[in-house]
């Protein structure tokens, strides 16, 4: 009986020790999440819709966890107040014109608050300051927009399919152009005629240059082109010499 009593006491002691250990670990984890063991200060903001944000969600600044959501309260039918606990050591980075937006960890992860970087000339946000918020974009709105886009894409695809069927059937101007061999032959003949006309025009121009009545005009034109070309080369040479002179002066100053 005595041995049984001692075993009971040992088991009871182990049970109590394990319970105390679990309690201490739970207090530590909760305290760490709530920043109870770090010096903190509070910041406030308001939203029209918090999009599922809850107490205990993370607060990030520049992608780093700097605090937690302390309270989410409904002020009226169009305003929800959010209070945050922020680590004291990041107070020197958060400005009064920083903005707060609601994000999420991954595509369907927990909600979190993101604090943007303010401008360098703004003052630092003090304990109890209220910051401007950006309203979150609801997933329902995104899905609704994607649905409309998909429906429009389907409609366009159907219309393109009908157009291609009409073209392959030889309907319409484009269909006749593609499927009618006579039209294709006429186009080929037209291109040949244009090519012949272009060749004849070149021959006429060469003949005109040999005509003594027009020879002076073409000579003046060639001289003007040569003069313009020479002027461009002189300008280019002048720029090159100027660059060499500047480079030489810079080299002398350096020495």
TrEMBL record:
Signal peptide start-end: none
InterPro entries documented for this protein: Mce/MlaD (IPR003399), MlaD_Phospholipid_Transporter (IPR052336)
Superkingdom as given in the UniProt entry: Bacteria
UniProt-listed Pfam families: MlaD
UniProt region (Disordered), positions on chain: 224-255
Domain Mce/MlaD: residue ranges: 41-118
Annotated TM spans: 12-31
Alphabetic keyword roster: Membrane, Transmembrane, Transmembrane helix
PANTHER family hit by this protein: INTERMEMBRANE PHOSPHOLIPID TRANSPORT SYSTEM BINDING PROTEIN MLAD (PTHR33371:SF4), INTERMEMBRANE PHOSPHOLIPID TRANSPORT SYSTEM BINDING PROTEIN MLAD-RELATED (PTHR33371)
Protein name as it appears in the record: Phospholipid/cholesterol/gamma-HCH transport system substrate-binding protein
Natural source organism: Flavobacterium lacus
